[in-house]
Design brief:
The complex is a heterodimer of chains A (263) and B (299). Chain A is mostly helical and 263 residues long. In chain A, 75% of the residues lie in helices and 3% in strands. Chain A has a two-stranded antiparallel ribbon. Chain A is elongated, with a radius of gyration of 20 Å. In chain B, strand 4 and strand 5 form a beta hairpin. With 299 residues, chain B is an alpha/beta fold. Chain B is elongated and about 75 Å long. In chain B, helix 4 crosses helix 5. Classes of the chains: A mainly alpha (263), B alpha/beta (299).
């Protein structure tokens, strides 16, 4: 099973490399990061540099990045249903659930790539325009640059979890759709509707989307010279994201297994 | 001969619409079976269920003695499937598309052989998005043949092909059946294609299997309908119509079409010679698949 998923995943990546659309997201994300210097200038001091990194990462990934990941993942299966390619694939010796998992891995890789591009871009911009020598308070070094980098990496790793859950959610919608347009429309619209009603309905604490911004909070705290706060939101972020990922993956697999590919 | 395909009471419903109803079929290894029927008869749905693409509402499909739903991974490498309007990744070349599919098959496959078989080797480096309908159809066949399958399930294999390509593809399928003992089940609207290729013909109507018969049996000589090549068609037709054992005699240019009623060709020949007519030929009519198809549908 792992071999077949690996082969399908590899093929997904090789197809993505040949698809121009796949490059649009990371390029735009990088442009957003660079253009963030206009609203958040970086001076020759560490504080504005770290503050820029935190803002640029959070804004780009949590708004633009999330939207791109949702749309990209929603297209993965729906475009194949729409074109009929799925029929050509589904008669090969690979189980449908394995193919769904390969698609999820594809979407997750895209999320990792976006995070890496945004992270690399924001650190690059901060390094190029300022100096990152650690966070100081009253002339005393509170957090060294290596500590800040470590906090950032932890934040990025944690930030990937809700993004992975978002990928699973979009792929699940994709298995239910017949065209990429409808898959993207439903995925994004449903996301915003849930975001609007989650507080009035008091379901926000149980949804992973509530904690999407949280992974960057410890880095932001440290950039401001404060103590990093990981608990309890960090744990909620991990718990709800993992639960949502499992749930959406299970639904996607069940739908795909039962789906009639003639239509 | 071992059974390649066995279906038992196979049924597929879409809501209240019954697409296939209680289909039970046995197809031997190496056999070529043509599925005939009008639009909506259930041909494609049957093929999709055989290929594991459409889950049956009830009933079972077993290929090579194994249930397709439970043993898909063992069965899939042994079958090639061509769906209606085959689709590919348009942004990849024909060769790259086949390489993707070959990788999924988990075998070392030379994709150029499959492309060569369907006459697409020259276009192997072209993006599929630039292909014509006929080229896509041939690429569809190439992907079906990719793993050298023992079973081919083909939904209208010559759809969109020009006459020359159609002949080439039919010849290729015939060769595969004769030389490699490949079992082929295909659907078609083209009766002459089915006549030329199929060992057996299955006629479906409104989801039901009306008949399944060897093609040879259906295409036997019809000795009750003959064509006479004569010098004076009008006179001959007139004389024949006076006979009680003749049902119909139609004079055409240089010939007369005759339908015998409880009489033999031998008797007819004797009558014509005895009457002094100059007859240069008596040609019995060969039954066509169309005759059988219409007869089955009407009954």
């Amino acid at each position: 099973m792992i071999r077949r998923i690996w082969v399908a995943y590899r093929l997904e990546l090789s197809k993505a490399l040949r698809m121009k659309l796949a490059y649009a997201g990371p390029i735009l994300a990088l442009l957003i990061v660079v253009s963030m210097t206009q609203v958040h200038p970086v001076f020759q001091d560490s504080r504005t540099g770290y503050s820029f990194i935190a803002d640029a990462t959070a804004v780009t990934l949590n708004l633009f990045g999330l939207l791109v990941v949702l749309m990209y993942s929603a297209m993965l299966l729906a475009s194949e249903f729409n074109s009929g390619v799925i029929r050509t694939i589904a008669v090969r010796p690979i189980l449908r659930r394995e193919y769904v998992i390969a698609k999820m891995l594809h979407g997750m890789t895209y999320a990792v790539l976006l995070t890496a591009v945004v992270g690399g871009g924001s650190w690059g911009v901060a390094l190029a325009s300022g100096s990152l020598t650690g966070v100081t308070f009253g002339g005393e070094l509170i957090y060294a640059n290596s500590e800040m980098a470590y906090t950032y990496l932890l934040g990025a790793a944690m930030g990937l979890l809700p993004q992975f859950a978002a990928v699973a959610y979009a792929v699940m919608i994709s298995t239910l759709s017949r065209s990429p347009g409808s898959a993207i429309g439903v995925t994004v619209a449903l996301w915003f509707v849930v975001d609007l009603v989650k507080y009035p309905l008091r379901i926000a604490p149980f949804l992973f989307s509530t904690y999407i911004e949280y992974p960057w909070q410890p880095f932001l705290d440290r950039a401001d010279g404060l103590e990093a706060r990981w608990f309890p939101q960090g744990y909620y972020c991990i718990g709800t994201s993992v639960a949502a990922f499992i749930l959406f993956t299970a639904v996607a697999v069940i739908v795909m297994n039962r789906r009639n590919l003639q239509r | 001969m071992p059974v390649c395909i066995q279906t038992a009471n196979l049924t597929k419903c879409y809501g209240s619409v019954v697409a296939v109803s209680g289909l039970s079929l046995d197809i031997q290894m190496g056999e070529v079976v043509g599925l005939l029927g009008a639009n909506g008869a259930g041909k494609s749905t049957t093929l999709y269920m055989l290929a594991g693409l459409a889950p049956p509402t009830s009933g079972t499909v077993s290929l090579f003695g194994k249930d397709i739903c439970r043993n898909f991974l063992q069965i899939a490498p042994r079958m090639g499937v061509l769906t209606e309007r085959p689709s590919f990744f348009d942004y990849l070349t024909a060769r790259r598309n086949l390489m993707v599919l070959a990788d999924l098959a988990g075998k070392e496959i030379t994709v150029d052989r499959a492309l060569d078989r369907v006459g697409l080797l020259q276009a192997a480096g072209r993006r599929v998005g630039t292909f014509s309908l006929g080229m896509r159809q041939r690429l569809g066949l190439a992907q079906a043949l990719l793993t050298e399958p023992e079973l081919l399930l083909l939904d209208e294999p010559t759809s969109g092909l020009d006459p020359e390509s159609t002949q080439d593809i039919l010849a290729l399928l015939r060769r595969l059946s004769n030389e490699a003992n490949v079992t082929i089940v295909f659907s078609s609207h083209m009766l002459h294609e089915v006549e030329n290729l199929a060992d057996r013909v299955a006629i479906l109507n409104k989801g039901r299997l009306l008949a399944i018969e060897p093609t040879e049996k259906l295409l036997s000589w019809d000795l009750s309908r003959v064509e006479l090549l004569v010098d004076a068609p009008d006179t001959v037709a007139k004389r024949l119509l006076e006979q009680t054992w003749i049902t119909e005699a139609t004079a055409l240019s240089g010939r007369v079409e005759v339908v015998l009623n409880d009489a033999t060709v031998h008797q007819l020949a004797g009558f014509l010679l005895g009457s002094g007519f100059v007859v240069s030929g008596i040609i019995p009519r060969r039954r066509t698949l169309q005759d059988y198809f219409i007869k089955v549908l009407n009954s």
